Fold these 3 entries.
Entry 1:
Amino acid sequence: MALLTKLIVAVIGLLLAFYFYSGNDAFDPSTLKEKRVIVTGASSGIGEQMAYHLAKMGSHILITARTEDRLKKVVEKCVELGAASAHYIPGSMDNMTFAKQVVHEAEGLFGGLDMLILNHIGFTYFNYFDGNVDHVRDLLEINVLSYATMTVAALPMLKKSGGNVVVVSSFVGKVGAPFTVPYSTTKFALDGFFSSLRMEFKQQNTNVSITLCVISYIDTDSAVNTVAGVIQQPAAPKEECAFEIIKGGALRQREVYYQYQATKIPLLLRDWAPEFLEYIMLKNYDVTKLKPQQ
Ligand SMILES: NC(=O)c1ccc[n+]([C@@H]2O[C@H](COP(=O)([O-])OP(=O)(O)OC[C@H]3O[C@@H](n4cnc5c(N)ncnc54)[C@H](OP(=O)(O)O)[C@@H]3O)[C@@H](O)[C@H]2O)c1
Ligand SMILES: *[C@@H]1O[C@H](CO)[C@@H](O)[C@H](O)[C@H]1NC(C)=O
Ligand SMILES: *[C@@H]1O[C@H](CO)[C@@H](O)[C@H](O)[C@H]1NC(C)=O
């Protein structure tokens, strides 16, 4: 065991060194100037921060979520920060008619679309699976089927612009983890849908990039309030996370890993030493801090 640990540490060290010296940062934020972008789930958290970054880059922005007064405030701030234009449309993503409507709204406002950032998630609990399969089905509607619906609706515009689909997933969309059974199910489904679609796009010379973002624990209010104390690892900053997602999308990367050391590195263990990965992950939870289930 001691030898294995040393070996893993050595491999991780080498990989980190490679990552930090490989300098793959050819991102020029001005490439997003005048670009037409939809951001879902932008009334708070990472989505809100993405809207602010895009505003500073001079994009045309359409944001959506359910809470209208919050969207209004985010749009006002986007205008102040320098957005080419900023608009919002309130509604719920459990409604596929609404999901399509958001895309059609962008078409009406901008006459096209360059980037579709799918980021919203429905509410779920953080606790042992309660046996409610209906909740899993409802969450699949919001977290997955609305993503697929919006992508299908936006595809004609994205083909025309050679645009980008950016899908915000999670570390638990690549590895199972306790207390997130319904959520993790939906994030794994995104990988299946979008990674398969990406291959078909290659086969068919469809010039639309798909970027799947594998995100670790981030310091958004909702995440911190939900997992506070239970997950021992520190939360990474939402501003930087939002920037890395936009950057990966603009660079047409297949996947974004943020934070790199909390996602890509443990994922190296997934297929080769799954039990070791489980052991490390389980050590990271303090079950005594779990909040009682609502
Ligand atoms: N924070 C983390 O630790 C973390 C880790 C890994 C991955 N991620 C991923 O990052 C993304 C953003 O997470 P976040 O932490 O920023 O979450 P958040 O702050 O809770 O934001 C979620 C957004 O989705 C909207 N939303 C909720 N229910 C909705 C519904 N039924 N229809 C339409 N919109 C709805 C919310 O606004 P309304 O309530 O106004 O609708 C809000 O704008 C998610 O895809 C999440 O899975 C986050
Ligand atoms: C679904 O969305 C459409 C378009 O926004 C709206 O007209 C309809 O009332 C919504 N349905 C429900 C049940 O909210
Ligand atoms: C695909 O679209 C991008 C962005 O519009 C463009 O830079 C690139 O040249 C296009 N590639 C092909 C093969 O058309």
Entry 2:
Amino acid sequence: MAQACPMQRAVLSWAAVALLRLLCVTAVRPSRCPRVCVCDSIQLTVTCANKNLTQVPPAINEITLKLDLKGNTIQELPTGAFQHTPYLTHLSLLRCGIQRVRVGAFRGLGRLVHLNLASNKIAILYQESFDGLSSLKQLLLDHNLVEEIQPGAFSQLSSVSLLSLAHNRLVYLPNMAFQGLQAIKWLRLSHNSLNNLAVEAFAGLFTLLRLSLDHNELQFFPTSPMTRLPELTRLELSHNPMTYLGEETVVMPKLAHLLLDHMSLQDFSQMALTSAPRLAHLDLSHNQLRILHPLLGPESLSRLNLTGNPVYCSCYLRPLMEWSIRGRVRLLGACAGPPYLSGENLGAIHPPDLRCQSQEAMLKAEMEEMNSSALLTTPQPRYKVQCPANCVCEGETNHSTCENRGHTTVPRGFPPDTSLLDLRENHFHYIPSQSFTGLAQVVSLHLQRCKIHELVQGAFSGMRSLVYLYLSENDLSVLSAEAFKGVPELTYLHLERNKFAKFPCGAFQLLPNLLVLHLENNTIANLGRGILADTKRLTGLYLAGNNISTVAPGAFEPAPALNTLHLSSNQLREVPSDALAKVANLAELRLSENPVRWVGPRAFLSLADSLKHLYLDGMGLEKMSKDSLAGLGSGLRSLLLEGNQLEALPSLSPLTGLEVINLSGNPLMCDCTLLPLRKWIESVNLKVRATCGHPPELRGKKVKDVQIFKSCPGEKPLLTPTPTTSQIVKSTKNRRIKTPKSKKPKSAHIKSPKAKKPTSAHIHKSTRLQTT
Ligand SMILES: *[C@@H]1O[C@H](CO)[C@@H](O)[C@H](O)[C@H]1NC(C)=O
Ligand SMILES: *[C@@H]1O[C@H](CO)[C@@H](O)[C@H](O)[C@H]1NC(C)=O
Ligand SMILES: *[C@@H]1O[C@H](CO)[C@@H](O)[C@H](O)[C@H]1NC(C)=O
Ligand SMILES: *[C@@H]1O[C@H](CO)[C@@H](O)[C@H](O)[C@H]1NC(C)=O
Ligand SMILES: *[C@@H]1O[C@H](CO)[C@@H](O)[C@H](O)[C@H]1NC(C)=O
Ligand SMILES: *[C@@H]1O[C@H](CO)[C@@H](O)[C@H](O)[C@H]1NC(C)=O
Ligand SMILES: *[C@@H]1O[C@H](CO)[C@@H](O)[C@H](O)[C@H]1NC(C)=O
């Protein structure tokens, strides 16, 4: 399609550019574009909608940001389905007939913000289904067949603010169904068949503001589950078959909007809302209420909707009317009787007009009311399974928990089908051998904050399926290999916030499948040679927040799979280049907040082929050798240097693949020596955040705004470019050409200020596309 653009060499006027922009198809096929798809290499989008694709096309350009696969027939998403497109921010899989999402299907999509899985045929959300989506903000699962949410299904989604599960087949919500959604704002569960919510169904949703439960089968207001939502301001329960709300039903300190319309309410206790002080808007429209008494509790109710109720406007309604006038509550709805007031708007009625004809009629009306409010029933029974005392075992989810129940020994007698066992916050002190016999199905074991200082050999033996083990925030300082006997599948091990002063070498010999090891926030002081000798498959090693001052050469050898290494917030005084010499696949290295003052030549040379993300922020760095980044090239995506003391920088121009760079908080010396950086900033389409620290008169100015470089030798050629073919062609495609409002160019130097910045950005962009 690129050939559609005329290759002219003449200097183009703006009119011609505009015309060309119309003529050129913006969708340019980059080097890698699957045959049936449309690829836009400027916006980095790939669209393959309605193409009868049966799998995720393999040949998608790695740098793609938005991928649209809607309307295909992809029945199953395998593990790692998107591992070749790690930069995706938007992914649509709408209407793809997906039945199953394998564990780890989205692994590697750490930048994904929006995931649309609506209108598929997904029935079960497995534990860790959404593993790896750490930046995800919106997850849409509407119009599927979801009937089961396994514990931990959302445990990795710590950034999600909207989770939508409307139009599914949920009947029951188990305890902790949504655990891990630490930033959730709105949870949509509308149009399911929910009739039962476990007491802890919403546990952990501390940030939830809005909950939609409309169009379900709830017969009772879920009082206890709602108390787990301290921040909730809006609750939608419309279209549920509830018949009454009794005293103290709504215990929600911040609730402002409560929607209870289109239900079957016949009775609403005047004490129902005594623990909902902030309620401002109550919708009771389309129920069966004949009368309502003044509502106690809400201090500033402003709107009460009674539209569509058979409200009988007799003397019994007077207290409500007087209350609404006193409290300025706007009443909506109309009288259903008696005949002389029928159809009259409630808001227009004066209390004296509300009369009762006879004493008998009044008594009768009163009796009826008292009878209907006596309709209290007992809560529904629960499906019972074997379970130790002082624990809760859910037969339907195979989830057992005894969190914070004061146990001093590991309880026995959990159901053999248990797959998630949560024992956090008890006081075990040590874990004897054979503590978990008979629990061969447990995948995830939580032992956080249990004051554990010792794991006796064979502590976990028999847990053949164990994959996740959480031992964070205990008192462990040593570990023997025998402690992990009998758990060959263990993959993710959390040992952060313990008391390790030494790296527990040798402890992992019996864990051939260990991939991720968390040891943050211990007090490990140094890393000796060969500490990873037993963990050949390790991909992630997290050692931030220790006291590491020395790393022996060869410390990480061999570590053929090591991909992520976090050493931030330690006591390193230099980049441990020798230790990294043979870590051939390292993609992310974090050295932030170590007291490193100087980075010497070729510090990262051995990582040149693999490194993608380099964190050198907050270190107090004063100088980087001009060869410090030698070898790093188009592969590097992020370079974080903020919060240092750098006055100058090595050349960044080989880093043609950069997507994130941060230079803020460095006191750059803005004189002619900085000209190469300034030119580089002008040539890339990135937010660089560089400011001058010297000389004093320029302190705080953005490097790209200062004029001083005009007088430097070597500046002129850059500012009078001769347009090349590629500039012309590319400039016609960029829809985001910036107008130079903020710039004050000196016209003597700049012939065509409008064209300058965008075209140089295009040169950069086109080289980037060719090199990837
Ligand atoms: C997809 O398949 C259907 C039926 O086999 C066919 O009618 C339709 O044209 C195909 N669409 C595309 C884009 O190939
Ligand atoms: C009151 O309820 C009716 C019926 O549900 C609805 O149409 C109307 O918008 C509501 N009015 C207000 C102000 O909420
Ligand atoms: C209310 O209930 C009592 C017995 O509990 C019954 O005698 C009476 O008829 C009922 N009144 C009405 C109006 O339903
Ligand atoms: C619980 O375990 C049983 C037996 O292992 C299994 O059939 C069932 O699918 C499990 N339920 C869930 C929700 O995982
Ligand atoms: C380590 O400690 C720091 C500082 O208290 C904290 O911000 C970080 O979240 C901790 N990390 C872990 C994994 O515990
Ligand atoms: C950290 O290491 C230094 C020696 O390098 C030692 O003096 C200090 O006590 C250690 N700090 C902790 C918290 O272990
Ligand atoms: C850049 O660094 C500054 C200072 O630490 C920080 O406030 C900002 O959020 C960073 N920006 C990015 C994109 O990392």
Entry 3:
Amino acid sequence: MDDLATRLAAVDARIADAARASGRDPGEITRIVVTKFHPASLVADLYRLGVRDVGENRQQELTAKTEELAGLADLRWHFIGQAQTKKARAIRAAASLVHSVDRPRLADALDRVGEDGDVLEVLLQVNLTDDPGRGGVEPAELEALAEHVAAGCPTLRVRGVMAVAPLDAPAAPAFARLAECSRRLRSVVPDAEWISAGMTADFPEAIAAGATHLRIGSAITGERPLHI
Ligand SMILES: *Cc1c(COP(=O)(O)O)cnc(C)c1O
């Protein structure tokens, strides 16, 4: 718990430094702690340290942890992983927010399981790599996906873009492309201003490129166990 508190404080200090270096207000940046593969007890420890935003990338793990920690009512669960359409109902039931909407069929599946009047905030994930097998919509198709969701999915609200930087290339140019995607998205959905980018290895670069939501795992949680 002490180590966790120390790592959390160190990351928050680095976030504040990177924000100030870019002339940004650290208060406008949401730090999401990615807790995948770690037990629910770690999420409870983070909660005691004041963390209210956590990220999970697998539906079954998300569902199990949200059930176990249902008492922590103001904890926000961000779903950040690849989503299968058949898991849409379970994801929607457990997640406060979904960062990884990357195709019309997934948007439709998430929309269909929504109740009338219930709105799920989503980000559109963009693929910044040359590998079409990675998650995310091709940048050239972002506007079409945004139009599809805005016009056809009344229970979803598009808040912005999300991406993972390519592993084998510098992060800064990739995040600059993401910022351009964000501008193009806002030509379709003017208030979709969020940019979810930046992980342990590259969050300072993401902040410099305008990220509003950081998804930071191992720098805070320590090494991920292989199994939970
Ligand atoms: C695991 C994961 C992260 C966090 O990765 P770290 O390198 O541990 O900070 C961020 N985003 C996504 C989509 C992830 O799957």
